[in-house]
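Team,

Forwarding the record for the chain on the shared tracking sheet. I've put the sequence and predicted structure together so nobody has to dig through attachments.
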Amino acid sequence: MIYRLVVVGLLALTIGTTAATERPNVVLITVDDMNWDSVGVFGCPIPNITPHIDRLAREGMRFERAHVTIAICQPTRAVWMTGRYPHRSGALGFDRIRRGVPTLVEALSEAGYYTGLMAKVPHVVPSRRHGWNEIVKGTELGFGRDPTRYYRRAKEFFDRAAQSGKPFFLMANAQDPHRPFAGSDQERRRWKNPMTRPVARKTFSPSEIPVPGFLPDLPQVRREMAEYFASVHRADETVGAVLRALEESGRADQTLVMFLSDHGMPLPFAKTNCYYHSTRTPWIVRYPSVTRAGSVDRDHFISGVDLAATILDAVGLPPLEGCDGTSFLPLLRGESQKGRDRVFTYINTTAAKRSYPMRAVQDARYGYIWNAWSDGKTVFHNESQSGRTMAAMRRAAKKDPAIAARVDLFLHRVPEELYDYQSDPDALHNLANDPKYREVLERYRRILLDHMKHTNDPQLTAFLAYLAER
């Protein structure tokens, strides 16, 4: 009887191990602070700005209505790891994930995956470090900006994963194009020794780069945008380096590759906000034998809360307990999926621990934002105000009323914002006080209110009080 139990146990272990090794590998590649339209295949007019990301899109599927849930580095990654809205995981800002909340990496590790993390370590593992077999700090990767080191360390990871006999999960995070931008004064101050400073192989002149519609076209804005795009190109080289290492491992055909940015560019009206350009992300998935090469999903909204559920579904594992997101694996197969007509986005606290609660909902037409912090006195402050752009806007505001109005809006905001993103993606014309859009405004208030009630949002009481005053 004991012999029979041992045999049965060994057989079950063998079957489990076989199932694990047959599961697809996963490589999650992220870039830092890259606007969706800074990518060639998503419409950037700079020739050959992102050749490796463009190639990945040609080999897989890209999503035209993809958004992250919160446009700040660490909390957006907590959403990816938990599949929960920020207040549902405890990670509202730069916080630990609450005890008892399961994570993607733990689920994969427990299922037999060999796991690795490259860069952005403080933003990914302030909690749950034990889920990772390998952790490579950004300082070991040229401050997260050296494609050559990413290639070497990714290659070593894939070799060790092969030796383990396990499927692998690698999260490779490029720290470009996060500030300090390549060639900027901020970069020179950060790394005073030129020998330790990250190298950018390609630079741009201010005259050849596009200025976003949500920023004024000023000389210093153009100069900073040129520095930003040098960092965008270097980020693309890092993406290419990881993909090259994967291809050389011989396991690319058994690997789901997912690529996206953690949020928009670190400039006013993008990062650390809830605007269209704050949360829209260049999301691409290449899943051999599942995604059709060069396919594009232009209809369905996908969100950061869906990332964990989708990866787990793709490798044959159940969703995380308490997950708010849903798998979009059917979309990868080219199918349609109901319930993907809008996304909800958030801001809570910044890296400086300042509280600026924002809640938003957007769909194919409109975007509604409620700024709980806006009282006419509180002044908004975030990383996007460092560097050349905001300083140039402040100087220009002294003589240009239109720019002065933009600066004032950015610094003080208004309680409600409503935009027709179909005609105004740069959010230049707030319709919240326009009587013609009163019915639209009330409809989106109700949609957001229902969502806040459903998720037990800590800002619900304040939102109800605000609506009662209206």
